[in-house]
Amino acid sequence: MAFEQTIKLKNCRYEYTLSPIVKKFTLKDNTFFETKVGNYELTRLLEKVPNSGEGFQLKIIINKDLTGVKINITDKFGLRLVDIFKSEETHIHQEKFYFLMDSLVERGVFTKNER
Question: Gene3D superfamilies of this UniProt entry (predicted)?
Answer without folding.
Answer: Lp2179-like (3.30.1820.10)
